[in-house]
Specification:
CATH topology of the largest domain: Aspartate Aminotransferase, domain 2
Number of helices: 11
CATH architecture of the largest domain: 3-Layer(aba) Sandwich
Distance between the termini: 16 Å
Order of helices and strands: EHHEHEHEHEHEEEHEEHEHHEH
Structural class: alpha/beta
Strand order of the largest sheet: 2-8-7-6-5-3-4
Radius of gyration: 22 Å
Largest sheet: 7 strands, mixed
Number of strands: 12
Shape: globular
Amino acid sequence: MTDLPPRPNQPVYLDNQATTRCDPRVVQAMLPWFSEDYGNPHSVEHVMGKKAEAAVEAARAQVAVLLGAEPREVIFTSGATEANNIAIKGAARFAASMGDPRRRVVTVATEHKCVLESVADLAAEGFEPVILPVGPDGLLDPAVLREALATPTLLVSVMAVNNETGVVQDIAGLAAITKEAGALFHSDLAQAVGKIPLDVTGWKVDLASVSGHKIYGPKGIGALFVRRRPRVRVSPLFSGGGQERGLRSGTLATPLIVGLGEACRLASAEMASDTDRIATLRDDLLRHLQAGIPGIRLNASLRDRIAGNLNVTFPAATAFDLMAALPDLCVSTGSACSSAEVEPSYVLRALGLSDQQASRTLRIGIGRFTSAADIDYAAAALSAAHAACSASTETKA
């Protein structure tokens, strides 16, 4: 049996598509708003409320810069799941309330669960969900979208970067096709923000969703982009005091919003250098894995992929056996929202993988705080664990 490398002093975290460490600079920016500056940003009749309001608006501008939007187009939410629900259900319900006869809502088989479930929920309200396939590379064929749009369509939702495979869709191109057909275009940007340059205005995106904890910000905060010109109208999901242009009532969480703003500011400043370093680490890891585990397979396109993602299928050992053998290596079998399920990843199935192949697949996410030593350990540990698990399987057989 191949010996595993020495265990590290602390876990090696390579699951940055699930969540990221909150950058210490983000934490420092948030701290005063938990204690000293605790005013309600909606209490603008006194100095502490005004100070909190100013901090919220400064953060809104920082988010807008990263998205390529106007500050007034940024609505704060609890995260991308809420933003996706508001965008999809809200746009559909508002259109229906205005007498729009279109009921077709189009999305993609590899979308995040919250998008697929939001679209599915609309079926009970008389809408027609349409789920489009992707190719083995994980990309949506523009011709497939054009064919779907031959039937009058209300809304199309396509995520910019897939949370399991890291595949980057051509959002500008897909949005253009959608706009030609007269439909609204929404994109889940949770995995794209801070990883690739964004321009929601130039791309003619109507609605877009953001998550703070995917970009080294805090959990529990996100944002929804809602285009102002031409104006996109969305019905709110719940009632309240009418905050956030009436789309998301409730007292804003100033500390978390400040944290999201700082995370966006850092991403704007450091994305290029982060991307170069992370891509080098990813390529090193892939090269070592291919050398140490002949027959390992990379899923989806390598070219159309964010720098920090690897999604690999092992030739013999299952993902669960590998993870059990390496308790100090934090990787995953797929989406963090579905990883507790025994069911194989629906994203991998959509790419054409069998259930058996999906069971031998790991998602590896490299990020801002990943070191070269982390990569060396992961490569050696996975290679040794695969050899050990394979030998164990052969012995049992």
